[in-house]
Amino acid sequence: MRRYFNHIVTFTFLVFSVMHFFLDATLVGPVGLFVFAVLNFGVFHLDKLISDTPTVSTHLSMALLVLAITWYLPANASNMQSPAIMVALIFPGAVYYLIGLKPGIVWNLIILAIYTFFIVADTSAIVSSFPLWPTVRADRILIDYWIVFSTMLLISFFIAHVIVTQKMQLDELIKTDRLTGAMNRHGLNQELERGFNQFFRYKNIFSILLIDADHFKKVNDVHGHNIGDKVLVSLAAELKKNVRSSDIVGRWGGEEFIVILPMTPLEGAMVSAEKLRAVVENMLVTNDSDTRVPVTISIGVSTMDTAIVNTEALVSLADQALYQAKKGGRNQVVSLTALPLANT
User: Rounded to two decimals, what is the model's pTM?
Assistant: First the structure.
């Protein structure tokens, strides 16, 4: 973002230089602003010469910006422009930061439309109706304001868009298991909490499948951990391929996975679980000798209901069902339902 800041300052200088080439009576202002743009662009290339250059470049760019404002504003017809310019520099980005990208666009465009109106329209009748309203003329003061605001509106939108995109990507990375590409435990806990809250607020029922790869330790011991990782990656891929787009697949830990099935009662969850069990049983994973590595899974199923007090209880119920599936011979699906809360 520091690099973007440097480019923003350079671009701002260039915009002012070009616009005032047509507005100023002399070339002092436009040439001076162009010199500032060149100097600021040169600051960016100090990255190759100075250590810790992002911080140095940012401070130098900011110093040039302040110097340019200090140097240029006294050349205008009125010092009333100073607060207007500063507000125009700060306002667009502040709006995006304070209220978000989409609402910020709306308010920034409204403000831009207001200033455009005062530039192009004959406002004398409006002004005369309000004795306390200072006279607004389409001179360099208001035009400068419009130029700055328009420029910063576009630039701050670009920055806000970059920030939002990078935040979304970061959030996705935080919730993604690095090995399998499935959602990790942190993300699963968030989704379970969301489902839990929606169940009690909107009565949106959901189920979970707690899945464990059978004899996974044996796979690692016989074929090596690389093949074990290959099994986990293939298992995650098969699970994601064979569920609905609204279903959520995540790695709970080790060789355990959880599938969250929104708007799915126990009967539907059992059907989905049996489908996944059969798919994985026929999944083809080979070792380094191109020999097939047999993979099966055991699945514990639980469904949210009013007797379940938190997400930990829901997962615990599925874990108990999974234990029974393991105890019963593995490669099977078992479900458990919560007991009603005892009256006290």
Answer: 0.58
**Residue 45, token pair as written in the block:** 């290339």
Which one from 255, 267, 274, 312 is the annotated catalytic residue? 255
* CA pair distance 294, 132, nearest whole angstrom: 85
Q: Which of 53-57, 66-70, 339-343 has the lowest mean pLDDT?
A: 339-343
Question: Six-digit token pair at 47?
Answer: 């990255």
The answer to whether 70 and 49 have CB atoms below 8 angstroms apart is no
Q: Which domains does the chain have, with CATH numbers?
A: 2-174 (no CATH), 185-335 (3.30.70.270)
**φ, ψ for residue 142 (rounded to 5)?**
-70, -35
222 pLDDT more than 60: yes
3-state secondary structure 151-213: HHHHHHHHHHHHHHHHHHHHHHHHCECCCCCCECHHHHHHHHHHHHHHHHHHCCCEEEEEEEE
Residue 255 catalytic? Answer: yes
